[in-house]
Design brief:
A hairpin with a 5-residue loop joins strand 3 and strand 4. The protein has four helices and seven strands, in the order ββββαβαβααβ. It has a four-stranded mixed sheet with strand order 1-5-6-7, sandwiched between helices. The chain is an alpha/beta fold. It has a single domain, classed as Rossmann fold (3-Layer(aba) Sandwich). Helix 1 runs parallel beside helix 2. Helices cover 33% and strands 21% of the residues.
Length: 143
Amino acid sequence: MVIHFSGHGSDQSEIVFQDQSGQAKLVSKEAIVQTMAAASSDIQLVFFNTCYSREQAESVVCHVPAAIGMNTSIGDDAARVFAAQFYSAIGFGLSVKRAFEQGKAALMLEGIPEDKIPELYGGAGVDIDSLILVKPPEQPPTA
């Protein structure tokens, strides 16, 4: 299972949610980490596609195998291009590490100078080079 946050983050390591009345609500890093700790043990990756989310990603890998966060502010185009290529690579059965590298390469190919902003973190003892989230279907042997 993958948890994906897409939206806004603050430079105080908070994610901006919306409350029931439509107002911005800042959610602390500690609250996010506690939520992931209490969530399903099936979570394999948490993707914080929000500005200033590096600390959330670093902290949450105590409870999940891998996380992606942004080390500063990231533009909408960069966030979209990176995520699209990352998930495309995941869908083709690549490891989290290789998909992450392809997402960064997509930014560079598009001339978007934000390829140093996404950061990938792995939990203790987790080999993110071998962590595969989608197994490609087996191909029948050719005759």
